[in-house]
Amino acid sequence: MNKKQLKFIIGSVVIVAAIGYLVITGISKTSVYYLTVDELLSRGDSVFGEGVRVEGKVLDGSIKKDPSGLKVDFRITDGKKDIAVHYEGIIPDLFVDGRDVVVEGKYRREGIFTAHTLLTSCPSKYESAGKDHPQEVKKI
After folding, report:
1. What share of the chain is helix, strand, coil (3-state, %, to 5)?
2. What is the domain partition of the chain in residue ranges?
3. Per-residue pLDDT averaged across 17-28, rounded?
4. Which CATH architecture has domain 33-120?
5. pLDDT score recorded for residue 137
6. Using CA atoms, how far apart are residues 99 and 74, in angstroms rounded to an integer?
7. Within the chain, how many helices (H) and strands (E) appear?
8. How far apart are CA 106 and CA 87, in angstroms?
């Protein structure tokens, strides 16, 4: 192997290693996992002040909107446990009682999850056809 080939191989290895390092550190710093309410609460003190995403269903009757329309307090549940959530920002149109939501933010020692992101799931666009649904589409 001559000197030129050796430089090329070393340069290639350095570039591949640098790209790999950037991808791995970028993913690890920006990835946030979804937790259920029960998983969040079972982690104890380790979650206080940490950025997390929590998935749950809005408890019926728990939504309390501020008159400004940019603040809302509500509770989410995973069917086992529930937590209080405080969110400030634009409230999605689909945000209603019983809706599945994902909140991203920090869980405080006071037992309140302060969310900076509120995402709602969309209702299914596809529903099963009723008995009145035609089996065949007629062409005009």
Report:
1. 25, 30, 40
2. 33-120
3. 85
4. Beta Barrel (2.40)
5. 47
6. 12
7. 2, 7
8. 11
